[in-house]
Amino acid sequence: MWANGKPMSRMNRFRLGLLSTCVFLAAGCSHGNPYRNRMLTVPPEAEAKYPFAYGNFCGPNYPPAVADCRSCELLRRWPPVDELDAMCYAHDQCYASKGMSNVTCDDAFHSMLIKAQSELEAPGCWHLTTDMTIAFFFKYWGRGSDSNETWSHRLVQFSLGIPVAAFWAILKLPIRPFLRFPEEGRCGAAGSAKACEVIRNFERQYETALFAGPSPRLEVPKRCDEPMSASLAEANHEVRSSQGPGTKESPAP
């Protein structure tokens, strides 16, 4: 997830900070979270700290925007490390196509996260996907195709989304000490073929979302003919951390 390459306004910085805080409250308070406050190198940028980062595409303002063609930049980081990362890739590309914080992109991503809680069965994936789901229930500042769509979405989030997020965050609090996060690259299958299947599902979710707008069509750029072995995924996304923040080097474009 990303912010565009132009300097962010004060309001956008506030919103990014608020989403980062939501992710921290939902995902960062658990013991042993390797994806919180990660020091990552994303070429050509220098090393930077991210409040939350998973795989190649999951996290607020991650990967950072460093090129004029955002869609091209994301495609150069292909493939996602697993199915969860593929969802984040589709979400980022949706923003690149439809605009930052587009409500339909968020709705499609959120619907897939909710399903992923039961579909991604590897140890720890339920913990991570529920925390991401809670964080997106908190997000109220999305933008629609017009003012009516924008404010309808905000009304739904204030009246339903935020209370649901608070409820699940509190409900989950007592069991947090007993939960562990997944190993990176284990939340679903790796490889371009599976990533493309996930992305096509995202496109369908976008076209049938509640706030689909007047032109509910989305075509996410993808490279479906590029296989990737699990060993390569491990080599590219190894988490070198002990008790401190995670550190890894992201693949060069």
Tell how many strands the DSSP assignment holds.
3
The run of helices and strands is: HEEHHHHHHHE
Mean pLDDT, nearest integer? Answer: 80
Uncertain stretches = 2-8, 26-30, 228-253
Number of domains: 1
**Strands ordered across the widest β-sheet:** 2-1-3
Largest sheet: number of strands, sense, barrel closure: 3 strands, mixed
Q: Counting H and I runs of at least 4 residues, what is the number of helices?
A: 8
Distance between the termini: 17 Å
Strand content: 5-15%
Helix content: 40-55%
Q: Gyration radius, to the nearest Å?
A: 17 Å
The global form is: globular
Structural class: mainly alpha
Describe the structure.
- The protein is mainly α and 253 residues long.
- The chain has one domain (10-249).
- It is 48% helix and 6% strand.
- The chain is built from 8 helices and 3 strands.
- The chain has helices at residues 10-28, 70-76, 83-98, 103-119, 125-138, 147-172, 192-207, 230-236, and strands at 36-41, 47-52, 247-249.
- Strands 2-1-3 form a 3-stranded mixed sheet.
- Strand 1 and strand 2 form a beta hairpin.
- The radius of gyration is 17 Å and the shape is globular.
